[in-house]
Amino acid sequence: MNNPLLASTPELPLWAQESVNLADERLGARALACSDDFFAPMQRMLNPAAAQFFPGRYDEHGKWMDGWESRRRRQGGNDWCVVQLACPGVLSGVDIDTSFFTGNYPPAAALEGCPAGADPLQASSWQVLLPVTALSGNAHHLLPLQGTGQPFSHVRLQIFPDGGVARLRVYGQPRQGGLPPNEEGLYELSALIGGARALAWNDAHFGRPDKLLLPGRGLDMGDGWETRRRREPGYDWCVIKLGVPGVPVLVEVDTVHFKGNFPDRCSLQGAWLPDAASAALPAQSQFWPTLLPEQPLSADFIHKFRLEGASAVTHLRFNLHPDGGVSRLRVWGLPENLS
Asked: Which residues belong to any copy of the Allantoicase domain (predicted)?
């Protein structure tokens, strides 16, 4: 079998950079139903990893494709797929990715949404978010949505008339009424599903820092933030905007799977900057107050650090001394309105 090819990664517009992909299966998004997925299953479309193409791979239905693909439609009409988002959210845009679908991509697509609290089984619940739009093969289609300001819990992708879509990414701001507290009464301020996101970093050679904010423990060494080997003085860092501003109390740094490449130490800084411009944060963050001074780390372990006397923050700077990989960062605390 030939080596697989990997789809390109597009440069995201600002509305996507400042949003969470609510159609990410790692966060809990699910494909509920579709008109047909004979060639490739609908759930595969929600894989957050870049699509792959295996030139020599076939299965009992034909060519193996990394995405959702329906059979050739002969009786009129069009195909569709209903996706339950990871949580309700105010939607800003979509990426309809047809990577590696060349002679079998749909010429057009549309997207509808079902508002949170409405019944997706009722036809009257669905609203047009993206009118019928032309698609091309083997391409990312990053398209802003018609915003209403209300949160949606489900989307329905319509393709005309049939074909394959490698990935569906639905960008938005989570609106789920807050995550439940843990047994100590602390809230996960840094959860991606709660709206947190990585805004800037100096290096992400082996893995992007937004993986730090995913639920659960890392699946393997590729499921975390890892920088290249540093050959010059200094250390690596990333800036994170919390989903819920608040007072941090407990920090968890999980180095699961990172055994010969975990950081020697880590530290944490923070600031209250509710109106900060993202472009200014990398420079500003160097001078933020220290929340957690340098702490030694070990391989393949969950480290827990208590913070004493911290003030409320909206942003964090997570530092790796001097470099390496971390699977998850969790910051537990009290939301500003409860502190």
From this structure: 28-174, 195-334
